Amino acid sequence: MNRRQHGACLIESLIALLVLSLSLVATVRLQTWLRQHSDLARERSDAVQHAQRALEGLRGFHDLAAFDSTAPHTTASPEGGPTAFRMEQDSAVADGLKTGRVSVHWQHRSGGAQQLLLASSVARLAPVYTALLEVPPQDTLLAAQRVSPASTRTFPDGRSIVKPTAQSPIVWVVDNATGEIQLQCRVAAASQARTLRIEDLSGCEPFEARLVRGLVRFALSGTPDPWQANDAPLPLTVHAGTLRCESETIVANGERYIAYACAAPSGDTEPRLVPQGWSFGLTAATFRSCRYPGSGRVPRNYLVIRGNLDCPSTVTPHNGAPVVTVQHQP
Fold first, then answer.
1. pLDDT tens readout for residues 19-44
2. Which pTM was predicted?
3. What is residue 287's predicted lDDT score, i.e. its pLDDT?
4. How far apart are CA 232 and CA 171, in angstroms?
5. Is a pLDDT exceeding 70 seen at residue 187?
6. Does the pLDDT value for residue 308 go beyond 60?
């Protein structure tokens, strides 16, 4: 091998060494980049977990006073972790909705400051209602649709047999989804709705009406309380349009009220209470009827008080739910 060939081999070796060196440098830089981004991804994951725990604490209020608290505060992550986090929390309450924000700050290993922000909204609802979701049904026979009263027999086809009162000689076949009465049939007065079968019905005829039902409670002593009203009922009947209405006085388990069920010509028909032996008026010797506000798809309930008193309208909410009434009669 002559001198020229030796020189060419040396140049090739130097070029190969240069390429190898550049490859090694690129590999080291790639490993460093991957390690840094892996650390950043882990830190962000930890930051998200800290923020989520803080937001869960926001949702875990034990009463409405804690819900209404909006004081900002700062906390630090527990010691011993590879990264120290600082959480800044603040919130705002508007229209029954609390919006909480958690900002997590930390210092990346490379020296750069990092920040992550999470936000969530929580409804102003007393925790007792959330706890009720964990309570199993006590009586599946009562699990009828909202438009049907408890004295019903529900069938798989989406209809129910509704008996207006315990001693009524008629029953209504009701569409659970709409509250529309489809049929009116006759039954034995002593029969119970929960044990009735289709075969027990007789004399059925088409019947177009909407089921309207509810309770009438009485608060006749002292300041009327729409939540605790439980005085002895006064005799009355209920009218709703030109169709059928039935009512009965219930005294059981310490409760006293009048339950009624009506076949109204339309869902907007507002029942009228008809006194028996007493009258509506605006004096202490007469009485006033107050209505618990509600739509056509919920029970229409009423409260009877002394005529010289106003319908309760500024009652302290019970477990976050307002209990108010508006005047109905006279």
1. 888 888 878 777 777 776 777 788 88
2. 0.52
3. 92
4. 28
5. yes
6. yes
Instruction: State which of 112, 131, 150 marks the end of a domain.
Output: 131
Domain span at 267? 141-329
50: CATH: 2.20.25.110
Dihedrals phi, psi of 173, to nearest 5 degrees: -95, 115
Number of structural domains (the chain) is 2
Higher per-residue confidence, 181 vs 81: 181
**Residue with the larger pLDDT of the pair 173 and 242:** 173
Domain presence at residue 21:
no
Same domain, 56 and 176: no
Residue whose structure tokens are 């209505």: 291
The answer for residues whose C-beta is within 8 angstroms of residue 32's C-beta and 6 or more apart is none
CB 291 within 8 A of CB 305: no
Residue-wise pLDDT for 117-161, tens only, equals: 888 888 877 776 666 666 655 443 333 333 344 467 777 777 888
Question: What does the radius of gyration of the chain's CA atoms come to, in whole angstroms?
Answer: 36
Q: State which of 103, 131, 159 marks the end of a domain.
A: 131
